[in-house]
Structure formats: structure tokens, C-alpha cells
Write a structure and sequence with these properties.
Largest sheet: 8 strands, mixed
Distance between the termini: 49 Å
Order of helices and strands: HEHEHEHEEHEHEHEHHHHH
Strand order of the largest sheet: 3-2-1-4-7-6-8-5
Strand content: 5-15%
Length: 393
């Protein structure tokens, strides 16, 4: 009986995390929709481009930013170089006559500290954070700043479009995951406030920005910081950012471990926001979207082990074990096929799901060991263009 309760409870929590919460968030966003007052405003904007050894992409990124449809006298561009050792800084200095500012961090302290330093020398009312490999449409700034006409808005997340020109299995898995994640983020935005933003492009009201701790994942904790100041973090569907997906599973795995490890550290440091009695809906979103999502790996293991003890009780439990076994075998087959360079086909979904959950386990072990990950290495290839954007949208 105890094994049965454990098995059913673990499956119920997995189902709630993966399917139930997204459906509930969508329903709640319709019942308690909090509209945003938008206006075509042009505040002074500082675009901060985070970079480490981006000599291949930084010139194109600067050109793209200089070409934005926004008043030039209201636009400041700062490249935050995290102790780059290639030609990144030299390339940035070549744009000094165009007004581009180089902020060089002479010690490798990580992306978050580089952003903090760049904010200190910036002058914009709105700070836009973006990565060197991220592309965007010409009207991005006009779209992302208009939500700041609402004085309750402290942070705005862009709508990221992942492109995969190589049609790799990992890239397809990444695109599917983010399509699912964006639906949840949009629902949370309508309910009141998002709990995290799109890291490759987001904007913060200067008065709402607080220098973040070195080991924090800035695109996650910024939403908590903004919330604790009594402001909202919202989603702007029309501010388009474009990113190339990872093409190799090892790169995707490394990126996920790093991000999840930093997010776990952030959840620990900002655990105050998990208090339902004090923070209500925001705490509910954090618990459902992050804490329970990260618990899925453990719940899968619990469901599998408890199912073993129940396998002789009825055909239902035998079928459940067969289903679990088939799913994990499909994930293993996907791993083997991926190593050959062939397309995964039907194995893509179980393989990507398993990859993400193994990454959670590895990240948790690192977190428990206190292995803070504060620096980042560019893993993806350059984002070639916005080609194919129409079909992605």
C-alpha cells in the first residue's frame, strides 16, 4: 500500500509539473489577466552586450545594434568584455567613433559581474542586456521599451526565436522545449509577473536594477529582484530575439548543467520568494515552475523504483513498468543514434527529455558540493542571420 501511494503521488507530481501547471497557468492568466499599459516612448536606452572571446561575432552584433530603428541620440551601446583574450576588445575599439563604449573586465569574473560593471558606467533610463551571438529585428528597441510606459513594469523579456539551420536533433529538441516554455512565460506575464526572463535579450528599468551577486544567473534572479521592489516582469511578444540552437548534445548538456546549477543557487539565496503566505502567486509560480520542475528527475527515479515493488500486484503496474522501460530504452537508443550522426526521428523527444533530467541531477550534485559556476564559455556557433525567421514565428 505504501509503495502504491508513493508511485501514484510521484506520477501525479510529474504530470502536474509537465502538463498540469502549464494548463493551470493558462487558465489563471485568463481569469486574472493584468493588462500592461503600453505607449510608443523613446527613453534613453543603454544596450549592454556581454562578450567573452567573441571576435567572430562582435562586429556583426555591433553593426546590428547601430542599425536599430531608434533615435541615435537616445541610444548608448556598451560592450562588456569579460577579460577577452582574442581580438574582441580591439574590434570594439574600432567602433569608438560610432559611440560604442568598451567596458573591459581585466579579471575573469563572469557574465553577471561584467554586466554589473557596464551598468555602472551607463547612462540609460532603460538597460537592455543582450549576448554577442543574439540577433534581433530593427524595431526591437521600440517594441521592448513601450511596456515601460506602465510604471508598474520593472523588467521586460523578449520573445526568443531559436533557429536551427542544420536541422540537428538537439536543435529540434531545444526548439520544442522553448516553444513549451514560452507558453508558460506568457501566461505568467499575464497573471502578474514572470519568474525569469529570456537571457539573450531583456530590458530593466534603471531604477529597478540592483547589482547582482557574482554566482547568480542574472536572467533568473532579475525577476525576483524586480518583484521584491514591487514591480512586474512582463513578456513582450513583439520584441524578437533570434538565437542559434546548440547542435551537439554535449554543448546543450554543459549549458543546461551550468544554468541549472546557478538557478539552484539562486533559489537557495532567494528562498524568501518561495513563501506562499507572504508572496502568494509569485511563490506559487516559483514552486510550480522551478522547484517542482527540478524535482522531476528525482520523482522519475522514485516512480521507477516503487513500480518495481508493485509489478506483481496487477497488470496496470506491469503496463506502467513496460511503458517506463520502453521510454528509457528509446532515450538510450536516441543517445546511441546521436553518436552516429544520424537523425533521431522518434527517439528525439525521449532523448532530449532524458538529457535535460540527467543535467538536473548533475547540477544538483554540483550545487550540493558548492561548486559555483560563475564564468561562461561561448558554445554556440555564430547566429548567421534571421533567415527562416518567418517560419519560426
Amino acid at each position: 500500500m505504501q509503495a502504491e501511494i508513493i508511485f501514484i503521488s510521484s506520477l501525479a507530481l510529474i504530470a502536474y509539473s509537465c502538463v498540469g501547471y502549464p494548463m493551470l497557468a493558462f487558465a489563471l492568466s485568463r481569469l486574472r489577466n493584468r493588462p500592461i499599459r503600453k505607449a510608443d516612448i523613446t527613453p534613453k536606452v543603454s544596450v549592454i552586450i556581454a562578450a567573452h572571446n567573441e571576435e567572430r561575432d562582435i562586429a556583426a552584433k555591433i553593426e546590428k545594434t547601430l542599425a536599430l530603428d531608434y533615435p541615435k541620440e537616445r541610444l548608448e551601446i556598451i560592450v562588456a568584455s569579460d577579460c577577452s583574450t582574442d581580438r574582441t576588445d580591439e574590434i570594439v575599439r574600432a567602433y569608438a567613433e560610432s559611440g560604442v563604449i568598451l567596458f573591459r573586465q581585466n579579471e575573469r569574473l563572469g557574465k553577471t559581474m561584467a554586466q554589473n560593471g557596464a551598468v555602472e558606467i551607463s547612462s540609460g533610463e532603460i538597460i537592455v542586456f543582450t549576448d554577442a551571438t543574439t540577433s534581433y529585428e530593427r524595431d526591437m528597441l521600440r517594441k521592448i521599451v513601450r511596456s515601460f510606459a506602465d510604471l508598474q513594469v520593472g523588467c521586460v523579456s523578449s520573445h526568443v526565436v531559436y533557429v536551427d539551420h542544420s536541422k540537428s536533433s538537439v536543435g529540434q529538441g531545444c526548439r520544442s522545449y522553448w516553444s513549451y516554455e514560452k507558453l508558460i512565460q506568457q501566461s505568467e506575464s499575464r497573471m502578474g509577473s514572470m519568474i525569469g526572463v529570456t537571457g539573450c535579450l531583456y530590458a530593466v528599468r534603471r531604477s529597478a536594477y540592483t547589482p547582482l551577486a557574482r554566482d547568480m544567473c542574472s536572467d533568473f534572479v532579475i525577476a525576483s529582484e524586480v518583484y521584491l521592489k514591487g514591480l512586474r516582469t512582463v513578456y513582450e511578444r513583439e520584441a524578437i530575439s533570434i538565437e542559434d540552437t546548440n547542435k551537439r548534445s554535449r554543448d546543450e548538456f554543459r549549458m543546461r548543467v551550468r544554468i541549472m546549477e546557478q538557478t539552484m543557487s539562486a533559489l537557495s539565496r532567494y528562498r524568501e520568494t518561495l513563501n506562499l503566505r507572504r508572496h502568494g502567486m509569485f511563490a506559487f509560480q516559483m514552486l510550480s515552475h522551478k522547484v517542482l520542475r527540478y524535482a522531476v528527475s528525482a520523482l522519475l527515479l522514485i516512480a521507477f523504483v516503487s513500480n518495481i515493488f508493485l509489478i506483481g500486484d496487477s497488470r496496470i503496474y506491469q503496463a506502467a513498468m513496460a511503458g517506463q522501460g520502453a521510454f528509457y530504452l528509446a532515450a538510450l537508443a536516441g543517445w546511441l543514434v546521436e553518436r552516429t550522426g544520424a537523425r533521431l526521428g522518434v527517439f528525439a523527444l525521449p532523448y532530449y527529455f532524458a538529457l535535460a533530467n540527467v543535467a538536473i541531477i548533475v547540477a544538483f550534485v554540483k550545487f550540493m558540493r558548492g561548486e559555483a559556476h560563475v564564468v561562461w564559455e561561448p558554445l554556440r556557433e555564430a547566429n548567421p542571420s534571421s533567415e527562416g525567421l518567418a517560419e519560426e514565428r
